[in-house]
Design brief:
single chain, alpha+beta, D-Maltodextrin-Binding Protein, domain 2, 2 domains, six-stranded mixed beta sheet, 21 helices, 42% helix, globular
Length: 544
């Protein structure tokens, strides 16, 4: 750990040096609402901590309105240490609207389509799906036009070797419409959580396949007839995200491509109509069998809040769920069952292999609605956001908190506060809940070695096992390079297809519709709504 901490601290120092070197070139940005130069580059011409981004103590704070997703497992708190400290560091006053994550994209879509009601900044966004059309039609700021105003972000992209990854995020016009969250390495932070104590009691090996899991769930149901062995966190979208890739698809609200009803064939390197493919039929057949046999929580169709989800596992109503490793500690602490022990397992093998949710080193990040560019101080707004989330000091705060409060340094070793170390939730979760550290919506820089300091040795071992599995974590599929008209056409097809899919998916899972008898009717409805045309649009516009 000492060597890792040394490397990490050196990395942050290197970033600080990189920013200094990049900003030492001179030639400040011109004007408030126009790019500093005609070209977009990863360099900077003005220091992020210059007078445009770090006001004196007696200056009036710049006010910024912001949307962020609110997760029931770490509900937003206005007085989180991260938010308070970062605002103080940058002399910013944030007006945060935390929106339940299940409703987040709907609220974002409404705001972007009615520009006057949009906030200055929207977190946890990318330019796929409807956002691609909105971007190319002027609803979202092409942030790559203002790259001279984002020196801290630029430095991280350079340091982490992500220039090519970011390049792939640009749309047909060659512009980037959001600043993504940046990872040095993808890691396995969520998967199948299952009662290890029950497995040992019954003599089961760790599950390797979905059939293995089925046998375990059946055994638990036989011993506990009133139970629903598999429960779901938040709603079906989380189950889909984790499990569909092993069946060769990724569709639904959290589809890896953002297309909702299409999936990507990694061998052929093209999209196919995943929502109506036989792979999807096989997927629904498996999980509808679980539902029919009382093995799947009947409330799975509705959002299940974090407390209710945890209670189901803690009191033995359920034995398994797909969720996140940092949630294990809280569930174990809440249980009164003797010997209760949750464990996270590697991805289960399905018909298409053993895969978890696809991950990217560049995920949803920070977006500026077009209305923000009308602000007279737009340059300062962009510079402040860059400093808040990507500067060396603040990137560290979003990850670790504040030295002397959440942690201290023992030589080169990070030592967390005793209150955090001894919390039943575990370090990572406790820092999320109490301090706002390590949240997908707000932390924009993720360095694996830093993240591992917040987990135990068991987590590290699981990650080593998953890393040794071939293609267990697939890459995010490539986005099509739509022009504005095609993007608009694709968006007009996407919404009705998504709505129709949700209705049929619920019906198939819960047995309201028969997969054997009604599948063809479902496929016809989706074809009538243009799913094949939609798929052709994606494939015709893939970057070669």
């Amino acid at each position: 750990m000492k060597k890792k901490a040394q490397r990490l601290l050196a990395g942050f120092i290197a970033i600080a040096s990189a920013v200094t070197m990049l900003t030492a070139c001179g030639g400040g940005a011109k004007g408030n609402n126009s790019p500093a130069s005609g070209k977009t580059s990863t360099g900077s011409t003005q220091n992020a901590t210059s007078k445009t981004s770090s006001a004196a103590a007696d200056d009036k704070p710049i006010e910024i309105s912001m949307y962020m997703p609110d997760n029931a497992t770490l509900p937003y708190k206005q007085d989180w240490l991260t938010f308070e400290t970062v605002q103080k560091n940058t002399n910013v006053k944030l007006s945060v609207e935390a929106i339940p994550i299940a409703d987040y994209q709907t609220k974002v879509s409404l705001a972007l389509n009615t520009a006057d009601n949009a906030p200055d900044v929207i977190l946890y966004q990318s330019s796929v799906g409807e956002n691609a059309s909105l971007s190319l039609n002027g609803a979202i700021v092409p942030i790559s036009d203002y790259s001279d105003w984002t020196p801290n972000y630029n430095a991280w992209v350079e340091k982490l070797g992500l220039k090519e990854d970011v390049e792939r995020l640009k749309l047909k016009d060659g512009k980037l419409y959001y600043m993504p969250a940046l990872y040095d390495k993808p890691f396995y932070d969520g998967g199948l959580l299952l009662r290890e104590d029950f497995l040992k009691k019954k003599g089961f090996d760790a599950p390797k396949t979905f059939d293995d899991l089925y046998k375990i769930l059946k055994a638990y149901k036989e011993e506990n007839p009133k139970s629903y062995p598999l429960t779901i966190l938040a709603g079906p979208r989380v189950l889909y995200r984790f499990t569909m890739p092993s069946f060769g698809i990724s569709v639904g609200k959290n589809s890896s491509s953002g297309s909702y009803t299409l999936s990507y064939d990694y061998d052929k390197q093209e999209y196919f109509t995943g929502a109506i493919d036989d792979k999807c039929k096989e997927y629904f057949a498996f999980f509808s069998k679980l539902y029919k046999e009382g093995l799947l929580d009947p409330e799975m169709a509705d959002p299940i809040d974090g407390d209710k989800w945890a209670k189901c596992l803690a009191d033995g109503t359920s034995i398994a769920s797909w969720a996140y490793y940092d949630q294990i500690g809280g569930v174990e602490a809440a249980s009164n069952i003797d010997g209760f022990k949750l464990q996270m397992y590697a991805p289960l093998e399905g018909p298409s292999g053993a895969h978890t949710q696809p991950r990217s080193r560049t995920i949803g990040g920070i977006m500026f609605p077009a209305n923000a560019a009308k602000r007279a101080d737009f340059e300062q707004l962009v510079r402040k956001v860059d400093e808040m989330f990507y500067s060396e000091e603040n990137a560290k705060i979003w990850c670790l908190g504040v030295e002397g409060i959440t942690y201290k340094m023992d030589g080169d070793k990070i030592v967390y506060d005793d209150k955090i170390v001894n919390a039943p939730n575990g370090i990572f979760k406790q820092m999320q809940v109490d301090y706002g550290c390590g949240a997908n919506g707000t932390q924009q820089v993720w360095v694996l070695d830093y993240e591992l300091t917040k987990y135990d040795d068991n987590f590290k071992k699981i990650n080593e096992d998953v890393a040794a599995m071939k293609d267990s974590i697939q890459s995010i599929p490539p986005a099509p390079a739509f022009d504005d008209m095609t993007a608009e056409d694709a968006a007009s097809l996407s919404t009705p297809l998504a709505d129709k899919f949700e209705v049929w998916a619920d019906a198939f899972l819960t047995g309201k519709k028969s997969i054997d008898k009604d599948w063809d009717a479902y496929v016809k409805e989706m074809k009538d709504l243009g799913i094949e045309e939609y798929c052709k649009m994606y494939n015709d516009n893939l970057k070669k």
